[in-house]
Amino acid sequence: MGAETRARANVWSTAMLTGALIGILIALIGPAVLNMLVEKSDDPTALNKVAC
Asked: Which residues contact 31 (CB under 8 A, 6 or more apart)?
């Protein structure tokens, strides 16, 4: 493999790692944020807890 191919592979791997970390953060923080929004809702038909 040439230097250009190696450089592209490094860029793609960095982008994939960054995307994975952001996805994990969203998966961890998302349910808590949704629970806060649902609990503040005055709609009696809304579910009290958001399950993952």
From this structure: 50, 51, 52
Q: CA–CA separation, 52 vs 50, rounded Å?
A: 7
- Which tens digits make up the pLDDT trace of 1-52? 799 999 999 999 999 999 999 999 999 999 999 888 877 766 666 555 555 5
Dig out the tokens for 22 from the structure. Answer: 């952001």
Read off the pTM: 0.63
Give me the helices (H) in the chain, please: 3-39
Cα 46 to its chain centre, rounded Å, is 24
